[in-house]
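In this supplementary section we document a worked example of the pipeline. Step one takes a protein sequence of length 434 as its only input; no multiple sequence alignment statistics are reported here. Step two produces a three-dimensional model, which step three serialises into structure tokens for compact storage. The input and output of this example are shown verbatim.
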Amino acid sequence: MRFEISRGGSGLTYEIRNIVLIANKLKELGMEIVWENIGDPVQKGEKIPGWMKEVLTEIIRDDYSFAYSPTKGVNETREFLAGRLNKRGKVQITSEDIIFFNGLGDAIARAYSSIQVDARMIMPEPTYSTHFMAEVLHASFPPNTYRMNPYNNWNPDMRELEQKVKSHKAIVGILVINPDNPTGFVYPEEMLRQIIKIAKDNDLFVVFDETYINIVFNGKKTVPLSDIVGDLPAISMKGISKELPWPGARCGWMEIYNAGKDPVFDRFINTILHQKMSEVCSTTLPQLAIPKIMTHPEYTNYLEERRSHYARLSEIAYNILKDVPYIMVNKTNGAFYMTIVINEAALNSRQKLHIKNKEVREFVENLTKETIEHDKRFVYYLLASTGICVVPLTSFFTPLLGFRMTLLHKDVGEFEQTVKTIAEKITEYINSSK
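The serialised model returned by step three reads:
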């Protein structure tokens, strides 16, 4: 080429997917992989019920399911979603306040790229990779964060949040992920109201990623943003990837609250919409399915069965891991992830796990011969010695060392054995350099 055409990256890696490349290389070398890296219920054995497939079969007979939809999304579906919110009586929106995207990844990318370069969002730490990567790409600087405390059941540091938004004038909005990914923390209503007050007192808007808002268990309670937003300009991000679950549909949407009450916020939303227009529209078929699936008489029971299963796996994992030396683990109460923190003083660059396969061992030793994060080093050795694929915690923009795993396995016995193996390997790895 006559000159360099690549824009150049941020130096960030989407480790949730990147580690798949390494795992696939180990598969080529004869290893069987236990995928605990990505939140895909279907890949982990979730059986889509017959009634849901029948709904889709009915829709696909309609030629309209093959056509473009309006840029903002299928009118009937947006009216359905707006109507459900309005029935709660906490906030009033119209179908025009809902915009569909090709998955929440698309929505997140559009939102952050529509923010001025010198304006910043403050987000939880650790945080879901897609959010912090989009924030870094838009501003070319590390994000502002408020810490989630693993030694306080992952409760966020609200004092830090308030102090930072007061002192950092570039901050224009607050991100909340509720329930949280990667920690599984569920925000109580009072804490959410406190965040809304901080935003209002400092003339900010909020973005609530509510992907898992209907996946809460272990007796915990929370409320959606729509119940507490009041007159604050705000965006709720939602989708069907995890709830139905239909991750391959790539179907998510934004609900815009209090449009028309702040001209600066309205211009921001208009910028997002104009970006969306260049794409024409989002996928039609999954949009058409949303009202029919969510109002189906089997849907509520199906969702409750899944919540109960995640609660059971959360209990199993917590009971196995809670007494393992040098780690901190909290019971997951929402979403379907568990994050394990490893004491940084217990990790170093000399530790290893026994790897039987010579080619696998040489491959991992080559990966770890350079200076890398200590938790990433452990994750590579865990993968190479057991086939268990998890995600290093530092990949979620935090100095905390550890890893994230899922609670998605459909076979309870196999899941329990996987967690026991992880517990054994943590101890073995830490003791290997003593």
